[in-house]
Amino acid sequence: MKSAEPPLIFDSRAIRRHRERAVRLGLGAEFLFERAAVELADRLGEIKRRFPAALDLGCRRGLMARALDRRGDIDRLVSADPSEALARRARRPAVVIDLEALPFAPRSFDLVLSPLLLHWVNDLPGVLLQLRHALKPGGLLLATLFGGETLSALHAALIEAELDSAGGASPRVSPFTDLRDLGDLLQRAGFAEPVVDADRIEVEYADLFALMRDLRAMGEANAQRERRKSATRRDTLTRAAALYRDRAPHGRVIATFQTVNLTAWAPAL
Length: 269
What we know:
CATH architecture: 3-Layer(aba) Sandwich
Structural class: alpha/beta
Shape: globular
Radius of gyration: 19 Å
Number of strands: 7
Strand order of the largest sheet: 3-2-1-4-5-7-6
Number of helices: 9
CATH class: Alpha Beta
Order of helices and strands: HHEHEHEEHEHHEHHE
CATH topology: Rossmann fold
CATH superfamily: Vaccinia Virus protein VP39
Largest sheet: 7 strands, mixed
């Protein structure tokens, strides 16, 4: 029997467009990606071994490469991103990728680093399997992705506002993989010794509109295939902004980002 195809939740062209729009907007909201790159570099620093060939998956403009600059245990770093505009700004060699079908040969890398990209994958088990194949035996995967608590208040406010103003709701905030599932997915992909942990980051904004401007500047706007294609009604956004503000402590708008960190090894021979 043919296995079921994974559901197509995300629109890969929209993901690429959003990342390219972030470049046009000046990449002015990179703080979460910078933090993720530094965190992965710090975790790598705890492992005392050489990684001659490494992959930066989701390179953006080379934040991971800069976080690794003081390290002498990586001889060659390949940058990769779904967006050509971002790949052009990263350290060479750099390649533009289809995130669902990675172009790397088996046993190409000793190390894969991925700061905040894998939450956009439709077939996460399949991509994890591809990454395990791309690693040499004994190779290491270190990745960070957004988890299920990310932007939960924004999601609730937008859904309620759209129900109130338009009589129905479309998907507004991307679904994120639950923390408890990721260890199982790593094991299913053939990784050994998987470790999964999470951090919670809270960022204060003046209002919902400032948060949404930052999401566009990050390239992290809604890319679900079933999203509403037309512009959101102004009264819906105004209602959502009021709901978000009224539910926030002391009227402050707090955006929550849950970052999930993955550590796993390709089995040694």
